[in-house]
Amino acid sequence: MKTLRTKSRNETVELGRSFAATLKPGDVVALFGHLGSGKTQFVSGVCKGLNVEGHVASPTFTMIHEYSVPGGTVAHIDLYRIRSREEIQELGLEEYFNERCICLIEWAEAALDLLPPHHYVVRIAFGADDDEREILIHASQETPA
Question: Of 66, 59, 72, 74, nearest to 106 (Cα)?
Answer without folding.
Answer: 59
